[in-house]
Amino acid sequence: MLASLGRVMGSHLLGRQLLWGVLGIVVLWLVSRFSSVVLYRLAPIAYGAALALLVAVLIVGNVRSGTRGWFVLGPVSFQPSEIARLATALMIAAWYAGRKDMRFTAGSVAVLVFLIGLPVGLILLEPDLGVALTYLPIALAALWIGGLPARAWVAIGVAGILLAGATWTWGLKPYQKDRILTVLEPARDPFGAGYQVRQSKIAIGSGMVMGQGLGRGSQSVLRFLPAQHTDFIFAAWAEATGFAGGSLLLAAYALLLWRISRTALVAKDRFGLVISTLIGAWLAFQILVNLSMVVGWLPTTGITLPLFSYGGSSLVTTCAALGVVSAVWRDRFVNV
Predict the structure, then answer these.
(1) Which of 17, 83, 97, 261 is most exposed, with minimal Cβ within 10 Å?
(2) Cis peptide preceding 127, ω within 30 of 0
């Protein structure tokens, strides 16, 4: 897919992504060799290092699209916010493993909010709302594992509604409000805020059953479709391979998520159970939000499609997360 899009865009997307892919596979293999005990002990160190990187990027980071969220070292650039997400999940799992009681109290919720709030707050200072939102499923999954009572979930729902209202009034910029309003009224601004989603829908529909073929889709070749190698790569894929190719990709994601859930169920300890669940929730959220964005069910947020969108930081971090799950799976019969 990236090879065909690279020819359209006049960029060497395939070569760069292959290098990141090789690095990602190496990272996945190396992380999978760690035992759960080692990962548990390394979690606070990884969390502290991630927070330090998030602070550093605010000071010396590179600005892209109004967001100071990248370190640039020659031809290589990466987002510490992607790394911090995995480190945060590891820290939460380690905190869970160190507790005697899985049930949540008010103090437990406060600790959890603090652990997640630190990196999210730093990311919002960049500002990068899209990446910050990907921490939400980690928080919700952690609360669910903790057996939060029903009344607490009701309180969270009410607080979420109030927070959404406050964010709409004081936190969102005009272009962000336009994206939300365009979801509710698709024909509101077809050549402005609604342009990306409109072109995405045309691309998906033009793929029909079997697709137009790689490098032949009119929306992609003529570059009507924005961000076709990153946020909207599924639209380009569906245009090229049709309903058949889109369904195949969704089946692959379903298999991946099923294997992660299976790993959580057979984990030998609490740490393995929690970290597998958090990673599965994070990846499921990213997949769901990206696909919903592409078909116009959710506003455009800049959340990429895991393992498929172009981007080194996201690919390597996702591979590292899958390496953690592989380590949990490998240790399932080990008695320590």
Answers:
(1) 261
(2) yes
* 316 token code pair: 């390597």
Residue located via tokens 């980071």 = 61
Structure tokens at 156: 């969270």
Q: How far is CA 199 from the centre of its chain?
A: 23
Give a yes or no: residue 241 inside a domain. yes
Residues of the chain with pLDDT under 50: none
Give bridge partners of residue 73 from the DSSP assignment: 76
What's at 261, amino acid-wise?
S
Q: What is the DSSP string of 87-146?
A: HHHHHHHHHHHT-S--S--HHHHHHHHHHHHHHHHHHHTTT-HHHHHTTHHHHHHHHHHT
Task: Identify whether the C-beta of residue 239 lies closer than 8 Å to the C-beta of residue 8.
Answer: no
Which of 146, 82, 79 has the alpha carbon at shortest distance from 111?
A: 146
Summarize pLDDT for 295-320 with one digit per residue, the tens. Answer: 988 888 778 899 999 988 899 999 99
64 pairs with which residues across the strands?
67
Residue at 336 is within a domain:
no
Distance between CA atoms of 55 and 122, rounded to whole angstroms? 7
Q: What is the pLDDT of residues 81-98, one digit of tens each?
A: 999 999 999 999 999 888
Q: Which of 56, 26, 68, 82 is nearest to 303 (CA)?
A: 82
Number of domains composing the chain: 1
Tokens representing 322? 């899958």
pTM of the model: 0.91
d(CA 268, CA 266): 6
| Domain membership of residue 161 as a residue range | 2-330
**Is position 24 within any domain?**
yes
